[in-house]
Each structure stands twice: as structure tokens, then as C-alpha cells.
Fold this sequence. Notes:
Number of helices: 6
Helix content: 25-40%
Amino acid sequence: xxxxxxxxxxxxxxxxxxxxxxxxxxxxxxxxxxxxxxxxxxxxxxxxxxxxxxxxxxxxxxxxxxxxxxxxxxxxxxxxxxxxxxxxxxxxxxxxxxxxxxxxxxxxxxxxxxxxxxxxxxxxxxxxxxxxxxxxxxxxxxxxxxxxxxxxxxxxxxxxxxxxxxxxxxxxxxxxxxxxxxxxxxxxxxxxxxxxxxxxxxxx
Length: 204
């Protein structure tokens, strides 16, 4: 049986952070004396927190903050994400695939995954002042170009990789015809989207 791990920001302790950062080679025997956190982002499948850290004198080179990712506090959202394999896929992407792409990704200090794949924890590099985009407000041209450049790096690293065809953490739609799958999603969710957000759409 796997050792239990914190599944929310409230459950994190200084001792747990000390253990994880020491195992990652970031503390050199030092310790986290105290920390504060704030919830960030608007994720629906998981919860994110920025953790600000204070150390003893042995830890001057350790990160001053990190990002922690947890399963959703909402039980329904958590069950859906776990059943769809979202938590498993994310953890395995950072463990196995992120190091193989030139796309900029945060350094992972520690990762956990429950046996039933319904819960996870990622402690990762805080890429502040970078900010997540918003699907509701859109992005400017500069940010759009940057996103496309990074997406191209991700696609180039794995395009045509037949060895990934049977990897269970790669979504089947991505292995087969992702365009057809995307079309099905569009047709399914478009009416509800228009009903909720149609007032903000232009006619062009």
C-alpha cells in the first residue's frame, strides 16, 4: 500500500515539504521552518496553490515558492477527472514525457499518484511572473504566438512516435484521429456554450 500523501493545501505540513525538497536535492539537509499558501487559478479538475517558503539557514539556495497541484475539492469533479485518467496522465506526462520535449515545462520537485489514480500531488517550480491564460477573455497576439511556438515543440517531440501507441496514459483520441474526436466534442457542447456565453459572441 502506498504511503498517504496530502490531498489538499490544508493537509500540507512543513515536515512533508522538508522531506520532499530534501529528496529532490534542493535543501542539502536543511528544513522548511514555515510556509504560507494561497489558492490560485480557476481549474475545475484540480486545485492549485502557491506555497511561499521560509527555511533555516542551511537552505539559502532552495526555491522561495513552489506550486502544488491537488485533486479537485469538489467530489463530483474529482471522481470524473479520476475516471477519465486526467490525474494519471498528468503525473505520467511529467515523469516520462516532459523531459523529452524542448517545450518549456516547470521542474517537478515531487509527484504522487494514488493506487486507484483518483488522487495525485505535484510539487513544481513556480514560473511566476508567468500567468495562466483565460479561455473566456482570450489572448493577445504576442501571447498567441508564444503558445503556438511552444505547442509546436511539444508536437515535434512526439509526432509519429509509434512506441507511444500502447502507452495507457496517452489519451486514445491523441493516438488516433484527434480531429474527429474534437469535432464530436464541438457538436456535443456547442449548444450549451452558446446558451451560456452567446451574449458575449459577435456575429462575425
